Amino acid sequence: MDASGRSWGGLADRVPAPAVFLTSGLTQYVGAALAVGLFAVLPAASVAWWRIAVSAVVLLAWRRPWRQAWTRSDLLGAAAFGVVLATMNVSFYIAIEHLPLGTAVAIEFLGPVAVAGITGRGWRDRVGIALAAAGVVLLAGVQLDQAFTRDTVIGLVAITGSAVSWAGYILLGRRVAVRRDGIASLAVGMAAGTVVWAPLAIGTVAPVVTDPARAAAIVGVAVLSSVIPYVLEQLVLRRVTAARFAILLAMLPVTAALIGALFLGQIPTVLELAGMALVCVAIVLSGPRPAGPDEPENPLPA
Description:
The protein is 76% helix and 0% strand. By secondary structure, the chain is an all-alpha fold. Helix 2 runs antiparallel to helix 11, helix 6 crosses helix 8 and helix 7 (123-140) packs parallel to helix 12 (242-248).
């Protein structure tokens, strides 16, 4: 990792992981607001592709991974990670075209729940993920009376794919983060995801490149919803277990609720406040355990 990567890693190591996730959540939801404005002129899946593609360009220009030595295994691992990440984004954007956002968020969280349940090392992780899942359901305002239509089926299939991809993102992302420069691997991965999902760009190039405002919005979505959050998450993945990372992801709906309260006047209901409290308890439960005299607080297996 170069000097820039070390400085970013050193900064992230000094900031508590929940604080990093709050920053990530803030940028993601500002980016989401920009993305919603694009759905009226571009298909949601195409917006997801542009988000991935522009993110890849930004990260490649910043990290310049071609200057590093790569093994075949590292390249394949980074590519697999990027394709899973891109699939997660595309699937989620398709899902929210057909399902209420709250329902989609709650179902998608099954991916992190599975990761925490399988990789958790003790009762604290498992109780933590149960509380986090309950908190996300309360925050998401799940609508269980959704009519079972063709749109519902498409949405459910898409969000299931997103949940599976989210689980893969956590597991592959942690492996990438601890093996080498995770941000350079993220750049390579996003480029691979861009190529795999390139057919989604068909018919959307002219509407984007010929409209400066639209192009600027795409860049904003990419930087705010992908570049900043995923770089921050790579830095956190170096420090925590997959189970704790999965629980920390529950902070994203909490962040959305706080943004809505502070800037949109959307005062949380009693159930939403209860959901926030459950997520906070889950994060405390899954927090670092006191390490023994000869062991690190958060071991990082390769």
